[in-house]
Specification:
- Strand 7 (about 75-85) and strand 8 (about 90-95) form a beta hairpin.
- The strands form 3 sheets. Strands 9-10-12-11-13-14-15-16 form an 8-stranded mixed sheet, sandwiched between helices.
- It is built from 9 helices and 16 strands.
- The longest helix is centred in the middle third of the chain and has 14 residues, at about 195-210.
- It is globular, with a radius of gyration of 21 Å.
- By secondary structure, the chain is an alpha/beta fold.
C-alpha cells in the first residue's frame, strides 16, 4: 500500500508468458518488497529477476517477453521506469522524473524493524524519522495502520509518511497479522478475529519504538484508513494511550453495513447471518466501545464511498459527541473510498496537522 499510484488505471499486464511458453513472469510481494520473478513451468524452478528494497508497481513486455519495462518505487522515489533484459537480468534506469523536485527535499529512507508480539510472532515494520533526526530529543509520534486488512506496507513511496516526518513526527507503520506478503497462514490467522490480535501486534510495535527513548509517550497519535480505520476505531475503544486519532473510511457498527456496502459475501461467510446470531457481529464492532473512548477522534470519508459508507463515520462521530469526547466529521463531496483530488488531499493533510 502506497498513496502515489495512479488511482484509476496504470495497472500491470498481470502474468506474462515467454514466447515459447516455457516461462511465466509475475510480480511477487514478499516481506514488504515486490519484485519480478520468472517461473519455469516444466520444472517449477523460480528465478529472481529483480531484487532490492523497492516495489515493482507495474510492468509491460515486448511480444516475446525478451525485454520488459518496469515502474519501480521506493520509500524515497515516487517511481521511475527501468528496462529489464529478461535473458541477462540487466536492469537499466530510463527516467529520473523527480530529480529536480526531490533535490529540494531532505527525504530519508525508513528504518526497517522486526519485533516480537504478545504470542512470540515476529512482526515487520518501518520507522520514518524526521529530517535531521536527533536521538537525544523527544519527538511526537504517529502510528499508521494499513487497510485491507489483507494488504501490506513496504518499500514504496508514501507521501503521507514523509509529510508527517517532515513536520516533526516519528512515524511507525507495520504489517500486523493478516497482512499480505508473509504467507497464507499469517494472512488467514485473523479470520473470525478481526479486529483483535492484530491490535495487539500494533501496540507491541508502539512499545518497541518507545523503548528507543526518542518518542514522547505523552504525545502519541494513531491513524488509518479503510481496514486501518476499523483498527483505529478499535484502538481508541481499548486504550487511552493516544492523545489524538484520525479514522478514515473505517467500519464501526458492522450490522448497519449489511446490504449497504460491497462486502455481503464477507459479512455472511465470516460472521453469519445477522438475524440468526448477532453476538459475533456486535463483539467485533468498535461502535459498542464508544463509552470507553477518551481519545479525541476525527472521522474522514468520501460522500460517495460504496466500499465503507460514510454512515460508519457519522454513527461513531455522533456516539462520541454524545459521550462528550472531542470529535470532528469531515466528508469530501463526490469522493469515493480513496480521497484522490489534489485539492482535497492538501486540505486533508492540513487537517491532520491541525488535529494532532
Amino acid at each position: 500500500a502506497g498513496d502515489q499510484r495512479a488511482p484509476r488505471g496504470g495497472s500491470s499486464d498481470g502474468a506474462i508468458w515467454s514466447k515459447d511458453g516455457r516461462y511465466l513472469y509475475v510480480n511477487v510481494a514478499e516481506h514488504g518488497r515486490a519484485n519480478l520473478k520468472r517461473f519455469d513451468v516444466s520444472t517449477g524452478k523460480v528465478e529472481q529477476l529483480t531484487t532490492g528494497d523497492h516495489e515493482v508497481q507495474a510492468y509491460t513486455a515486448t511480444p516475446d517477453a525478451s525485454k520488459m519495462v518496469l515502474l519501480i518505487s521506493s520509500p524515497v522515489n515516487i517511481g521511475d521506469l527501468f528496462l529489464l533484459d529478461t535473458a541477462s537480468g540487466k536492469l537499466t534506469q530510463l527516467t529520473k522524473i523527480n530529480d529536480e523536485l526531490f533535490s529540494q527535499f531532505d527525504l530519508t529512507p525508513p528504518e526497517e524493524v522486526w519485533y516480537t508480539s504478545f504470542d512470540g510472532r515476529k512482526i515487520h515494520g518501518w520507522i520514518q524519522k524526521p529530517p535531521n533526526f536527533d536521538s537525544s530529543k523527544k519527538y511526537p509520534f504517529i502510528l499508521e495502520i494499513h487497510g485491507g486488512p489483507h494488504s501490506a506496507y513496504g518499500f514504496t513511496f508514501t507521501h503521507e509518511f514523509q509529510w508527517m516526518a517532515a513536520k516533526g513526527y516519528v512515524v511507525l507503520y507495520t504489517n500486523p497479522r493478516g497482512s499480505t506478503s508473509y504467507g497464507q497462514d499469517f494472512g488467514n490467522i485473523i479470520q473470525y478475529n478481526y479486529p483483535g490480535d492484530d491490535y495487539k501486534d500494533l501496540m507491541a510495535g508502539v512499545d518497541e519504538v518507545l523503548k528507543r527513548g526518542y518518542v514522547d509517550e505523552t504525545r502519541l497519535g494513531v491513524t488509518g484508513g479503510s481496514g486501518g480505520g476499523v483498527l483505529t476505531n478499535w484502538t481508541v475503544g481499548h486504550t487511552n494511550r493516544f492523545k489524538a486519532a484520525i479514522s478514515g473510511a473505517g467500519s464501526a457498527l458492522y450490522v448497519s453495513n449489511y446490504g449497504h456496502d460491497e462486502y455481503q459475501y464477507w459479512w455472511e461467510s465470516e460472521l453469519g447471518l445477522p438475524w440468526k446470531d448477532r453476538r459475533l457481529w456486535d463483539s467485533l464492532s468498535p461502535f459498542y466501545r464508544a463509552d470507553k473512548v477518551v481519545t479525541p477522534t476525527m472521522f474522514v470519508g468520501g460522500e460517495l464511498d460504496w466500499n465503507v459508507p460514510i454512515l460508519n463515520g457519522e454513527q461513531f462521530y455522533l456516539a462520541l459527541k454524545r459521550v462528550g469526547v472531542p470529535t470532528q466529521l469531515v466528508v469530501y463531496p463526490n469522493e469515493h473510498h480513496i480521497i484522490g483530488r489534489p485539492s482535497y488531499l492538501k486540505d486533508l493533510y492540513q487537517r491532520y496537522l491541525a488535529w494532532y
